[in-house]
Structure formats: C-alpha cells, structure tokens
Write a structure and sequence with these properties.
about 20% strand; Rossmann fold; globular; 6-stranded mixed β-sheet; single chain; alpha/beta; about 210 residues
C-alpha cells in the first residue's frame, strides 16, 4: 500500500505541475563545510513533507553530492511558495584528506572521501551557475564569517543576480554572534537560527516565502 500511495502522490504532483503556471523554485543551500546545511535542509523537509534529505555528520563533507527534495510547499502569512531544496556539498577552495584522518579514518578512505568532496564542490558550483533560482547561504554564527566566505561563490551569485538569504546558524552555541554575520553582509537579509534545535524557524519560513515566492 505504501508503494501504491507513493506512486499516486507522485502522479498527483506531476499533474499539478503540468497544469500550474510556475515550476517550483530551485533553492540551493550553500555554505562552508559543517555550517549546518544538511541539518537545515532536513529540518525544512521534515517540517513540510515529513521526510529528510540526507544523513548528517560532524565529519566534514558528509554531503559530497548535491541532493534534492522536490515539491516542498511552504505557506506563511498568506504567502505560498513551492521549492525544490538542493542540499549542496560544503564549498571550500581545497579539500585535504588529512581533515578526515583526524576523525580516525583510514588513509585510503580519507583520500577517497577528499576526492569525492572535491568533485562535489565542482558540481555544486555548476548547479549554482546553471540550475538554481535562489540561494540560502548558511554560515556558522560561532565562527568568523570572513574565514567561511567563498569569493567565487559570491561572485557567481552576484553575476546571476540571484535572490539570496543569509542564515546565521548555530545561535544555540555560546560563542555565536549573528551581528558578525550581519556586518559581513549588510546588503542582504540575515536570519538567525539554530537548525539543530529548531530555534527561530518561524522567521526562517516567513523569509523563504517572502523572498522566493
């Protein structure tokens, strides 16, 4: 019955999309490794669909391929937006296999993981250039924002004039400072949250519906 119901739902969504005027907005969740992108993607997906996007881990680059959760409909304050959540690998200039050996990973596995992560970063940048309609940029509010920012990523966002929301994540941590994030990106809206604890998710959904709807 579960398979049949799932098939019916897929057919229903496809039919609705066929007769709708607008396709779902493809919203890429970008940011540095371990900023909480997958935690946020899972929080959004679970809140609105009941399903997760992918596994979470404290080890860097757990997400090494972009993952998509389609047809996530968010309704807030009379506004509605249907988005495809694209959870992307952490964007960084270099992936060193020694990052992973620090987590007691064997060298062979660490080298493989670093290679996959490097390929994933390239894929994430390709998606940014070609296949997203808006960006949620997740930064760790307990860390210096300027050590987290990738200039190439920012350059692509600006060149495509993509709508972007800055999410200052991990406000549950003692060293967090959303103001540091605001100061680094004064031209963009900054939303504080804890994706792990679910803090301030009402404002998160308000802004997503407002910016991407």
């Amino acid at each position: 019955m579960g398979l049949i119901n799932g098939l019916r739902q897929s057919i229903s969504r496809a039919t609705e999309r066929l007769f709708s005027e607008e396709e779902p907005k493809r919203i890429g969740i970008y940011g540095p490794p371990n900023a909480g992108k997958t935690t946020l993607a899972n929080r959004i997906a679970r809140d609105w669909t009941g399903d997760a996007v992918g596994p979470e881990s404290q080890i860097p680059h757990e997400t090494r391929r972009a993952r998509r959760k389609e047809d996530v409909e968010i309704e807030r304050n009379g506004k509605s937006v249907t988005i495809d959540i694209v959870d992307t690998p952490g964007v960084t200039t270099k992936v060193d296999y020694e990052e992973f050996t620090e987590f007691d990973m064997e060298k062979e596995d660490a080298v493989r993981r670093s290679r996959e992560a490097t390929e994933g970063v390239a894929e994430a940048m390709h998606w940014l250039r070609e296949d997203v309609d808006g960006v949620i940029y997740v930064l760790d509010s307990a860390e210096d924002p300027f050590t987290q920012v990738n200039t190439m990523l920012i350059g692509i966002i600006e060149s495509r004039d993509l709508p972007v929301l800055i999410f200052a994540n991990k406000i549950d941590l003692e060293d967090s400072s959303e103001q540091r994030i605001r100061n680094a990106f004064p031209q963009h809206e900054t939303v504080p949250l804890s994706a792990l604890e679910g803090d301030n998710m009402d404002e998160v959904y308000d802004k997503i519906a407002e910016y991407f709807g």
